Amino acid sequence: MIGIDVGGANLKIVDEHGVHIYYCPLWKESDLEEIISRYASADNAAVVMSGELADGFFNKTEGISYIVNAVKKTFPNAIFYGTDAKFHTNACPELAAANWLASVDFLRRKYPKGMMLDIGSTTADIVPFGQFEKLIRMTDTLRLQAGYLVYTGMLRTPVAALANSAEIHGVPTPFSTEYFACSGDVHFVLGHLGMEEYSSATPDGKEVSCEACQRRLARTVCADLEEIGQDGAVSIAESFWTAQKNLVCDAVDKVAKNANVDMILVGGIGSPTFAPLVGGADLTASLGIPADALPAFAVRELAGINNQS
After folding, report:
1. All domains in the chain, ordered by first residue
2. Three-state SS for 135?
3. With 0-12 CB in 10 A as exposed, 13-18 as middle and 19+ as buried, what is 35?
């Protein structure tokens, strides 16, 4: 059995050999079916998704059907975890954005009074475990309203979405709102992520390097890197990072206080960066759980539990 998490930008697969992450944007011509076919030797697949929201689909129903059909080309008997906390064998509305619930369902069994911060490329899931029944059938819209979903991540957040200015050569300088730079550029420049973690497409389609990231950041203030220098680019990165850090940490603090939790478990590619900030346990470093592919790992484990019951 393999675990599969189909996101809008990234495909994550967990098997007996470990974690495999692929950049697989569903709003473009997708390699989803071809990538999954590489794992045809597995007995079966347990699947969660959030990619049905990709704007290449007319609606979520179309997205769910596309993902289910792509998986079933290789695994006709695949099972799909839904927001009703049950496994399904065919496309249904409950499959939309259930990956976070699979993670919670798995972790709550050992940490019933804990909560999760799973911050990946695009979003931050901030969910307490204590009253699991109230989480069932929560949509992403409801989670946004409850503060359980914060739409910012380590790679794909536009810089101007969170920060609006930086001090350049001592002068407060407003940002343009073009998609010139993203959070991946920020975290690469600040040393929070390496080349391997920066797996998504860059805003300009160019390479990932310190200079390339700084050039993209410079464009945020309508400048070339030569105009503002490395110090200017770093100032832009730090401005964004301050805003993102405060947004996520404040949200975690609010949920933790309201739910009276005793432990924060941190997953996603942002776990090494955010775990110390929120006083949490990095899932990989502390517990040996693959933090960078938590839903794929969780759904595989849940499928095993389901088979035993």
Report:
1. 2-100+293-308 (3.30.420.40)
2. helix
3. middle
With beta carbons less than 8 A apart as the criterion, state whether 291 and 1 touch: no
Q: Residue 93, class by beta-carbon neighbours within 10 Å (0-12 exposed, 13-18 middle, 19+ buried)?
A: middle
CB half-sphere exposure, 279, CA atoms < 13 A: 8
- CA proximity to 50, closest of 101, 108, 90: 101
Tell me the Ramachandran region of residue 111: left when phi exceeds 0, alpha when psi lies from -120 to 50, beta otherwise: beta
Distance CA(26)–CA(24), nearest Å, equals 6
pTM of the predicted model as reported, rounded to 2 decimal places: 0.93
DSSP structural state of residue 291: G
pLDDT in tens, 244-301: 999 999 999 999 999 989 999 999 999 999 999 999 999 999 999 999 999 999 999 9
